[in-house]
Structure formats: C-alpha cells, structure tokens
Design a protein that fits this description.
This protein is an alpha+beta fold. Helices cover about 15% and strands about 40% of the residues. It has a five-stranded antiparallel beta sheet. The longest helix has 8 residues.
Amino acid sequence: MTLAELSQNTASRITGFTKQGESLSRLHCMGVIPGADAEVLRVAPMGDPMQIKIGNTLLSIRKRDALQIHVEHR
C-alpha cells in the first residue's frame, strides 16, 4: 500500500520506496524514511497536494511523491 492510498487519519509506518530520485532525496532530508510513523491529515479537493504528519513534523507533498512511499498499517 502507498501513502497516497491511505485514508485520512490512519496511522501507518513507512516501509520503503518504489524508486529513488531527487524528490525522494528531498523527502529523506525531511524525515520521510523507512520505519518512520506516517499519517495523512488532509487531502486537497483534487487529491493534490496532501498534508502528512511524519513523527511530529507536518509536511505538504505531491500525490506523485506519495505514490512512491510504501506503508503498512500500525
């Protein structure tokens, strides 16, 4: 399952990534790493962008990036 597929306010844990790239490297620098707790807080009306919570940090990411982040339910 990917982060983009999660319902709002569902607790999950990041398990890995589909591919590496510049945008995922940027997310790594912000704490989006395997093992981190993740939650989708809000999704814009057209589905993009998404507000997520990683640990205690709030981020806004593109749906195309969220589709590359694999998660499991906690």
